[in-house]
Specification:
InterPro entries: Di-copper_centre_dom_sf
Keywords: Signal
Shape: extended
Structural class: mainly alpha
């Protein structure tokens, strides 16, 4: 029951609750859906600064998940950390599940 509650709470973080894919060219949407993860060392100096600024932005925004569900979470960054900690026993056994279920701060940034 806790997992279902957590997944429902994390849906807005994933963007699955919105109708953002309606009437969009499939090729364009596929390009947008691919999250390009890069090693930190391969980022240029401006890209690194942008990434760090985005993380700081998440750390300064008020969290959206209830303190009851993730105790101690005060910021959006804490929301992601809390979701990750609660889901890790379920998703770390399968890499694809972890990528598709766990909310990604990179997608929010």
């Amino acid at each position: 029951m806790k997992l279902i509650t957590l997944l429902v709470l994390c849906l807005p973080l994933l963007g699955l609750a919105s109708d953002q894919h309606a009437s969009v060219d499939p090729e364009v949407q596929a390009a947008k859906d691919v999250l390009q993860l890069q090693k930190q060392g391969s980022l240029s100096e401006p890209e690194r600064e942008d990434y760090i600024n985005a993380v700081h932005c998440l750390a300064n925004k008020t969290g959206q998940i209830s303190q009851v569900d993730i105790p101690g979470a005060r910021t959006r960054y804490d929301d992601f950390v809390g979701c990750h900690l609660q889901q890790s026993p379920f998703v770390h056994a399968d890499g694809l599940a972890g990528q598709s279920i766990s909310p990604s701060p990179e997608q929010t940034m």
